[in-house]
Amino acid sequence: MAEDRVALTREGLAKLQEELDYLRNVRRPEGALTLEQARETNLSTEADPGYEFAREEQAGVEHRIVQLEHMIGSAEVIDEAAVHHSDRVRLGSTVVVKSNDSPDQTFQIVGPVEVDVKESKISDESPVGRALMGHRVGETVVVSTPHGERRLKIASLT
Fold this sequence. Notes:
Blueprint: E1 6-8, H1 10-41, H2 49-73, E2 75-77, H3 80-84, E3 94-99, E4 102-110, E5 121-123, H4 127-132, E6 140-145, E7 148-157
Helix pairs in contact: 1-2
């Protein structure tokens, strides 16, 4: 994948598009209205902390819109069919690993933009993700952690 491309699952791309639509159609107009109200409330807008806060909020929304537009424009959607037919861990793979020091764990390997620990989505650039990439079911990988090396055996792959 080219460096300027952003690897995304179809689900990840849809979430980014939803966030962009929300920011453009809800947050941006709300911010503009808040700024207008703050201006009307106090003629010396530079002295009004509410006005400054509203400006900073609006700038944050605009910055995020630009980020999302760039990510969506640079998106390379992971080929799910290729993932399911691969015998090696790759972007988009769901991997079940076993280790001696913890119960079985399931991870989906995603690009850095989609990382969500609560949903067990880990980056291919994380220590665990990097160690798993390219390996097959039955292989054991070694991951360096702050607490020492951890051995993970790939139990299944989808």
